[in-house]
Write a structure and sequence with these properties.
heterodimer; A: alpha/beta; Rossmann fold; Alpha-Beta Plaits; six-stranded mixed beta sheet; 14 strands; elongated; disordered N terminus
């Protein structure tokens, strides 16, 4: 039994078993199982409020699991959180530095917290050079730096004590497209050059696709799918056509077209309350899963326009991607879930 | 090795607190000006009082000399408030989370905040002492002066610990200021900071006897008025030492158990 545990420890940087977190009656993380290999980049993809940050909080020892357990670099996060903290690094979603201090002062404090001794400066300069950070202006406070530079400085601080695992919570949130791509390259470089395992959370589809060797899709605190990006995309099993109609359309006529796999209508909260006549005048959105979009599209448009001309408002073709995987699994797009959360927040705030 | 680690972490966080103070000239200016204003305005209120009255009531003919130790002691109440504001700022900015994902113990975070706030409180002491020389107050001999500064430091440690204890679980900016308004004035007026306790009603004398601000005020006053510590009652100092020690131990214990990020 001991040998088995040992081998798991060697192969995996992180092992979660039935990891759960509740806040009062709210279930934030729901019995998740997870294994992340050393040296890989693993992504937790999901909308805001899915439980990604709570998972990171538990794995970094900031909060204790309500039940289940997690082993990080061989240590139980609940029992040995101090040991875990010695060998992990953390990069926050919003850059957290002491803005009133200089970059070297910020790094020095970090080195003290990790008890790095006299070599801290040498390590800091090596990392700063690697990240092309200018340490020359020693009097400049970090509050005056650009967001990209501050992010690089935060990563420098996270790597200063040579951690085995680096946790990155929404690492590119709030960054412009150029800085985001720059950071993606940097994350890949860190992973290769330093061999550090990276666990990142994101709600950006492209980011998860570009960066992660493996990922888990999270919704409402549960892992609903996992695997490599390719494996997940294969789950969709076809292309997706998103068609907007000016008004209601009888879907039965397109069900039998060869190549149509599945048709799903966008859910409307008020649907049940509405009268049948009202429904017919309302715009309609259909998600149609097909074998090959380009082949089937002419037949599909023909069939629809023959019955009701000028009814199609727009058509969007989507090749299998992580967004369509999320849509397939939850019936909603990630940004739609985010928008719903925002709506709920504002409704609540307005009382 | 473990001790070295703890010490390094404490030094790192303590220096951060001190650097943040020095990098904000407004904080330094206000912390010096506030007690000075009190001493100058409040202290001058007895300028034309008969000397016989001052000597029988305050045991000195210079009310500013009487007030000096009391005012410096009372200003430590506000130092305590700043310690909890600083903790709340670290919670709000996320910096506390940055610290807590490192192997830093919660009690080290607490200790750094207490020591940082107390050091900040000490900034005013030399400047205030130099300023009151203009009002005819003589500076005591070095050993006694150091003993009084140490007493103020102990008082500041104890009060900062209490403030941090109260706001350990909170990240609401309003709480330290509300508590400060609620606690500071009664503590100041029920101490010997402004007036001798002989004329207090009995119930207020009981509070005054338990009030650490009284102990620091009386200890410092004996030194300032006599210019040395020959006839000083050191019980006041030991009381402050025990007060600081007990509060800091309770605070460290509470920080270990309750200091969390939201």
């Amino acid at each position: 039994m001991d040998d088995k545990i040992k081998s798991v420890k060697i192969d995996h940087a992180i092992i979660c078993s039935q990891l759960t977190k509740t806040y009062g009656s709210q279930l934030a993380v729901d019995h998740i199982d997870l294994k992340i290999k050393y040296g890989s980049i693993f992504g937790l993809l999901g909308p805001n409020g899915a439980g990604k940050t709570t998972i990171i909080k538990m794995l970094t020892g900031l909060t204790t699991p309500s039940c289940g357990n997690a082993i990080v670099a061989g240590y139980d996060v609940a029992k040995d959180s101090s040991k875990v903290k010695e060998i992990i690094g953390w990069v926050s979603s919003e850059v957290i530095l002491d803005d009133s201090l200089t970059s070297m002062e910020n790094i020095w404090i970090q080195s003290k917290l990790h008890n790095l001794g006299k070599k801290w400066k040498e390590k800091a300069f090596t990392l700063m050079k690697y990240f092309e950070l200018d340490g020359g202006d020693e009097k400049k406070k970090v509050g005056q730096f650009s967001t990209g530079t501050r992010k690089k400085l935060e990563i420098t601080m996270a790597l200063l004590h040579e951690p085995k695992i680096l946790f990155m919570d929404e690492p590119t949130i709030g960054l412009d497209a150029n800085t985001r791509r720059l950071l993606w390259n940097l994350i890949k470089k860190i992973n290769k050059q330093f061999g550090v395992t990276i666990l990142l959370t994101t709600h950006y589809i492209e980011e998860a696709d570009v960066l992660c060797d493996n990922l888990a899709i999270i919704s409402h605190g549960k892992i609903i799918a996992r695997g490599s990006s390719q494996e997940l995309k294969a789950m969709v099993g076809g292309d997706l056509l998103e068609i907007d109609f000016f008004k209601f359309f009888d879907l039965s006529v397109i069900k039998n077209i060869d190549g149509v796999i599945e048709i799903r209508q966008e859910e409307d909260d008020k649907k049940e309350e509405e009268e049948e006549d009202d429904k017919k005048e309302k715009p309609l959105k259909l998600f149609i899963k097909v074998k090959d979009a380009e082949t089937i599209l002419p037949a599909l448009i023909n069939t629809i326009t023959n019955i009701q001309p000028n009814i199609i408002k727009s058509i969007r073709i989507e090749k299998p991607n992580l967004e369509s995987v999320f849509l397939e699994l939850t019936g909603m797009r990630i940004n739609e879930v985010d928008e719903n959360i925002d709506k709920q927040f504002y409704t609540k705030a307005r009382g | 090795m473990a001790m070295v680690r703890l010490l390094n972490q404490l030094i790192g966080l303590y220096i951060r607190e001190v650097k943040n103070t020095y990098k904000n000239p407004a904080i330094i200016a206000l912390s010096v000006i506030q007690p000075l204003l009190w001493i100058v305005f409040f202290g001058s209120s007895f300028s034309y009082a008969p000397k016989s009255f001052l000597e029988s009531f305050f045991h000195t003919d210079n009310y500013i000399a009487f007030l000096l130790s009391g005012q410096l002691s009372a200003s430590m109440l506000f130092v305590g408030m700043f310690s909890s504001l600083s903790m709340i700022q670290d919670k709000k900015s996320g910096y506390l989370r940055r610290i807590m994902v490192t192997p830093t113990r919660n009690y080290i975070i607490f200790l750094a905040k207490v020591l940082g706030a107390s050091t900040r409180g000490m900034l005013q002491v030399p400047i205030v002492f130099l300023s009151v020389m203009l009002f005819g107050v003589a500076i005591p001999e070095p050993f006694s002066l150091t003993a009084f500064i140490a007493a103020l430091f102990l008082l500041s440690i104890g009060l900062s610990s209490i403030y941090l204890l109260i706001t350990m679980k909170s990240s609401d900016w309003q709480i330290p200021t509300v508590i400060s308004n609620f606690i500071n004035l009664p503590l100041m007026f029920s101490s010997t900071a402004l007036f001798p306790k002989e004329n207090f009603p009995h119930w207020m004398q009981i509070i005054s006897d338990m009030n650490p601000v009284s102990y620091s005020s009386t200890f410092g006053r004996e030194i300032i008025i006599s210019g040395n510590s020959i006839s000083t009652n050191w019980v006041y100092f030991f009381y402050l030492f025990i007060f600081a020690l007990v509060m800091i131990i309770i605070g460290m214990f509470a920080a270990t158990k309750t200091l969390k990020i939201e």
